[in-house]
Amino acid sequence: MYGNNPAYRNENQYVNGYRQRITAQQAAEIAVARVPGQIIHVDLELDNHLLKYEVYVLTDQGVVYEVEIASKDGRILSVEMEN
Question: What CA–CA distance (Å, rounded) separates 44 from 5?
């Protein structure tokens, strides 16, 4: 489900010099708590010096949402419906 991205190894890893404090699994759990559904993909991205997870959730209604979560503290940064 989460692929072979080395960023998913475990907590407190460094990615491109930035500290990751929550795991992909924790990010997925945070995302589905906000947008109930099935996780279809999780990415770890560096955007403007912010390491964040992009979690894609498929709802029961067939709508895909992207939930961006700060990897440092698990804070939800945004929730957007995908087209």
Answer: 8
